[in-house]
Task: inverse folding
């Protein structure tokens, strides 16, 4: 994994969280979003919460879902990849949200 300095790490996480917010706004899913101490909290109408949180010490983003917490590291030109199988965060988040809501979902978090 590429080691970002703290400023670059925080900038990349801010961009990621902003893209997630915009993609979810556009998706039409019934959920609320709030930023809490640097973490993006997704509150689904059905009750479950997901948290996209920054872990500055390890330079990771952690995606906390009801079933598990997944860790993602930043790779230049590829984005945030799961530390076990290199799945992109957007695909993992889409799958989790689809499972929780029963709605097909494909988030596009690419840079515009």
Result:
């Amino acid at each position: 994994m590429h080691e970002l300095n703290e400023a670059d790490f925080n900038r990349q996480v801010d961009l990621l969280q902003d893209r997630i917010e915009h993609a979810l706004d556009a998706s039409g899913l019934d959920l609320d979003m709030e930023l809490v101490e640097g973490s993006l909290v997704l509150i689904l109408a059905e009750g479950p919460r997901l948290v996209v949180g920054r872990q500055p010490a390890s330079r990771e983003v952690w995606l906390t879902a009801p079933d598990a917490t997944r860790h993602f590291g930043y790779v230049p030109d590829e984005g945030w990849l799961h530390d076990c199988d290199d799945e992109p965060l957007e695909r993992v988040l889409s799958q989790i949200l689809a499972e929780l809501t029963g709605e097909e979902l494909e988030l596009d978090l690419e840079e515009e």
The helical segments are 6-27, 89-101. The beta strands are 31-36, 39-44, 49-55, 60-64, 69-75, 79-82.
